[in-house]
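User: Hi! Is it possible to get a structure for several chains at once, not just one? Here's what I have:
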Amino acid sequence: MTMQYLLQLVISGLVIGSIYAAVALGFTIIYKATRVVNFAQGEFLMVGAYVCYAFVVQMRVPFWAALLLTILFALAMAMVLERLVLRPMIGEPIISIIMVTIGLSLVMRALVTAIWGNDILVYEPKLFQQETVSIGGLPVSQEFIWCFVLSMVLLVVFSAFFKFSKAGVAMRATAFNQQAAQSMGISVKAIFALSWIISAIVSGIGGVLIGNINGINSSLYHFGLKVFPATILGGLDSILGAALGGLIIGLLENLSDGLCKAYLDLSGVKEVAPYVILVIILMIKPYGLFGTKEIERV
Amino acid sequence: MQFCGDFRTTYEKDVKIFQTPFIKVCMGFLGVALLALPFLVKGEYLWIALQILIAVIGAVGLNILTGFTGQISLGQGAFLGVGAYTSAYVTAKLGLSFWIGVPAAGLVTAMAGMVFGVPSLRLKGLYLAIATLASQFILEWIFLRWEPVTGGSYGIAIPRPVIGSYTFESDRSYYYIVLAFTVVMTLFATNLIRTKTGRAFMAVRDHYISAEIMGISLYKYRLLSFGISSFYAGVAGALFGHALKFVSSEQFNIGVSIAYLAMIIIGGLGSVIGSIFGAVFMILLPKILSVITTLVSADFPSLTRLVTAFEQGIFGLIIVLFLIFEPDGLAHRWKLMKAYWKLYPFSY
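Assistant: Yes, the chains can be modeled jointly so their relative placement is included. Here is the combined structure:
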């Protein structure tokens, strides 16, 4: 075990974690505004990655234009889904809402496999330069840095959006009390649609970034399942919490995996570590680092 | 004087399992049909019937937890797995009989369920769903990695049950064992919800604060519900393992948990008959879809990839459409149908 190995684990953990953070951000935005638990968040990421692939590789659009088109696509998709699938579910019990998003995720996965198949696809040409940069004597590929920086930018932009813009304030008001928000002239329906749109865009960009590093295939949706440890750790309805939770989960997952492989000769810890962490958090601090505590007295 | 209609004047009459003589006759016919089934169909169709019977046990169990007690579980698939592996270990590795293996599977799974149910005492709704989702992934990982017990990725081969010198080797003979389990466990569930325990479950589901004020111990009943539900899952998993004669981890993945949740939602939450409808529907659906896909891909071979991808998609689509257009499930539709025919043709 060298220092270099450890540093390598930390860096790749942070990069994966930044994608988790982006997806968790999307999840939290929807949960905060609409109280819908979106099990299809990973599919949003997957669709984003594939649509961008279609533009860049299959249609030869320059990358920045393709990214813009992907964002537009995510916007349209989110609007349609929100209107057709989620709005009829308002007021239904939570289990129905969970189930409807699971059903949605199956449909999206099927569509993606039907169109693009199961093979791993690679962005060609690569979106970022391939030369490595040295950080602390360690060669790090530029893709990693771009991926990390861009997702951090995304997180900062949307945190600022929620804090300062008018729409962001309206979204927070809706999250706090729908009736009061409506009586102040906020269109709750528009806010619901907006939160789905933002969520789909953030996850879609996350998909493009991760697809650029690892290539894309239909198992990308697994990122959606890692959202739960991340958001529970951060507190379900906290944007900052989602971002931090994502980073921490990515880091812990990679470190525990690397360490168990090196010392205990145990592989595959990566798949289970986030959920063990999740259970531990639920046992000791169920509302996470920054979540709103629900207080009930009997 | 003969009244026109079905009047129930006492509570006992209201909670009777078989409300009218007509229903008793119907159930009698159903029973005969189920007993005769193995002689009428064979091969793949008998196998489908077996799967349905096993799924009914699992779905009824999940409905006790989710439908009656209101605790969402996304881990039913893994609990089936715990049952299957327990029975496999008891019968294949310890060499004990099926008749010890299946109850042991139920009990061990009930224990496991209660351990993972402990968070339910503090958590509810979404948090509980996520906790059980985590238990699904953790258990799946254990199935794959705990090689001395589970056989790792190779799985375990397990035998069919034996009584004396007779082995229930054929699907036809095994069908009767499963049928007996299904009938007993379904009747047990129907009875359970008529007792104090069942009413306490529903009180916890409908308003847990009021339930606690009325002296119902949330701690006891939530844990009990997890225990009973997991017991059902364990037995169903064990029966499934013995049916396949083989247990491996990918039979119990998250997809299975989702399928079971879909069963009780499509069938109807909080209804035993709904669980049965749901199980029948969800087992038959993929079979029907695959028949259609083979037909289509025989005519258009180039579409095979597209069509197999759509099998999953249609599965998801049906869940979505059901939730949007029939949120109370098939059990509700069944009730409407019965009400319609009761007064036919003078429904007004």
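Chain A touches chain B at residues 37, 85, 88-89, 92, 94-96, 98-100, 102-107, 109-111, 113-114, 117, 225, 228-229, 232, 236, 266, 268, 271-272, 275-276, 278-279, 282-283, 286, 296, 298 (CB under 8 Å). Residues 3-34 of chain A form the longest helix (32 residues).

User: Great, thank you!
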